[in-house]
Specification:
Pfam families: TMEM33_Pom33
Structural class: mainly alpha
Order of helices and strands: HHHH
Keywords: Membrane, Transmembrane, Transmembrane helix
Largest sheet: none
Strand content: under 5%
Shape: globular
Number of strands: 0
Helix content: over 70%
Low-confidence stretches: none
Mean pLDDT: 82
């Protein structure tokens, strides 16, 4: 449900609907916190990633689609690792 809400808010922000940019930023911050704190949310994102990987690896799709998906996934992972909201505890 959270992913669907975020997708809706992102779509509305991209088409410049009034008031959705602040919602996009706040909900994005919320989703980032949920991702870092909740194993359930991480599992949902992983399932979505696996599902899209399966769809893009279909032989009927042009290879460029898979390349774009891999590039997007790589960029999102790099961005995610760059902006951690919570510090990991160091075990000694």
């Amino acid at each position: 449900m959270e992913l669907a809400t975020f997708a809706y808010i992102t779509f509305k922000a991209l088409i410049w609907s009034k008031g959705y940019w602040i919602s996009f930023v706040l909900h994005g911050f919320f989703m980032r916190l949920r991702y870092e704190k909740s194993i359930f949310t991480r599992t949902c994102f992983k399932k979505l990633e696996v599902r899209i990987d399966g769809l893009t690896s279909h032989p009927a799709l042009p290879p460029v689609v898979k390349k774009y998906w891999i590039d997007l996934k790589t960029q999102l992972m790099a961005l995610s690792n760059r902006f951690k909201l919570l510090q990991e505890k160091k075990q000694e």
